[in-house]
């Protein structure tokens, strides 16, 4: 520990703009560092939620509240440096280079965590309603699925080592355009025979091996919860279940199934599909307002980004 030291005012301003909460390590105020760091995270989450659905009519359309922290941090740090008591104990982190190292380590951990482990996504459309609606956000677990990128930049790819289950909600690279991320629910696993007819899913699970009896072909369990009018159409809301996973779906009674637009798998009927090895069949919960495997086919496991584990 060192004594008779004082942080430089100009460096406090520079770090305040560039490093934000980390400037308070430089001016020897660890409690303020934690305060501003937590505040920065909370305000950033608030801004993200506020701007999830852009609306030009709102007064806050071009305002981000995190900007206020950008202004406050350098001003607060500068005043601390001007009134700094040189006789107080200088902690180990109160150094220009240690502050830079701490900030660099924090950003490295943040980037690594988002690239390889967990990444947030926003929901832009209604295809997964009612479970996920425009403006909602989800956290996706990525480790083990092999697609590792940061802010759209591919960092690393490996072979997938994790198997999805029926009912899982997943983010994946669109099979026809890998630059676009889609979010849907897994319905069919490799080897499954899937039929979508009269707004009902039928699944014949793949045979495990030749020594056991193959599973039968049956409709997915669903129970009507309620019916309501939306934009002039009548929607039915069902509780559907796949294995141990239960969720809600909605169907539009005024919508006719566009069977002739379905993906036509060779050797199968228009509304039937056999899921190939290392692929999945996915659907949106808003069954009559979703472009999914019915229309463009199967999702290769190499396109899976990760599984949704939380939403807000």
From TrEMBL:
Its main location: membrane. InterPro entries: LexA/Signal_pep-like_sf, Pept_S26A_signal_pept_1, Pept_S26A_signal_pept_1_CS, Pept_S26A_signal_pept_1_Lys-AS, Peptidase_S26, Sign_pep_all-beta_subdom. PROSITE patterns: SPASE_I_2 (PS00760), SPASE_I_3 (PS00761). It is a multi-pass membrane protein. GO terms for biological process: signal peptide processing. The keyword Transmembrane helix applies. Signal peptide: none annotated. Its EC number is 3.4.21.89. It comes from the Bacteria. Keywords: Cell membrane, Hydrolase, Membrane, Protease, Transmembrane, Transmembrane helix. The chain crosses the membrane at residues 9-27, 33-50, 62-81, 93-117. It is found in: Cell membrane; Membrane. Pfam families: Peptidase_S26. The active site is at 127, 184. The keyword Hydrolase applies. It catalyses: Cleavage of hydrophobic, N-terminal signal or leader sequences from secreted and periplasmic proteins. Residues 104-311 form the Peptidase S26 domain. NCBIfam families: sigpep_I_bact (TIGR02227). Belongs to the peptidase S26 family. This is Signal peptidase I.
């Amino acid at each position: 520990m060192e004594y008779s030291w004082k942080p430089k005012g100009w460096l406090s301003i520079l770090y305040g703009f560039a490093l934000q909460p980390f400037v308070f390590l430089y001016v020897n105020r660890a409690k303020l560092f934690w305060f501003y760091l937590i505040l920065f995270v909370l305000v950033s989450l608030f801004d993200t939620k506020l701007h999830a659905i852009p609306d030009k009519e709102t007064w806050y359309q071009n305002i981000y509240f995190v900007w206020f922290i950008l202004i406050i941090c350098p001003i607060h740090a500068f005043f601390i440096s001007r009134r700094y008591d040189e006789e107080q104990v200088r902690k180990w982190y109160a150094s220009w280079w240690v502050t830079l190292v701490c900030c660099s380590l924090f950003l490295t951990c943040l980037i690594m965590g988002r690239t390889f482990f967990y990444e947030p996504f926003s929901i832009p459309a209604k295809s997964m309603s009612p479970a996920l609606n425009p403006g909602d956000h989800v956290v996706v677990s990525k480790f083990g699925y092999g697609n590792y990128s940061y802010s759209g930049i591919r960092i690393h790819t490996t072979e997938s080592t994790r198997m999805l289950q029926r009912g899982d909600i997943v983010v994946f690279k669109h099979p026809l355009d890998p630059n676009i991320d889609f979010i849907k629910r897994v319905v069919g696993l490799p080897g499954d025979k899937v039929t979508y007819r009269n707004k009902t899913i039928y699944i014949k699970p793949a045979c495990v091996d030749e020594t056991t009896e193959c599973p039968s072909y049956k409709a997915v369990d669903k129970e009507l919860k309620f019916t309501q009018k939306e934009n002039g159409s009548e929607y039915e809301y069902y509780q559907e279940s796949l294995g141990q996973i239960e969720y809600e779906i909605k169907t539009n009674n005024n919508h006719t199934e566009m069977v002739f637009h379905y993906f036509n798998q060779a050797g199968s009927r228009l509304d039937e599909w056999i899921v190939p090895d290392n692929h999945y069949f996915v659907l949106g919960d808003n069954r009559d307002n979703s472009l999914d495997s019915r229309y463009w086919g199967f999702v290769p496991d190499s396109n899976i980004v990760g599984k949704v584990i939380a939403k807000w």
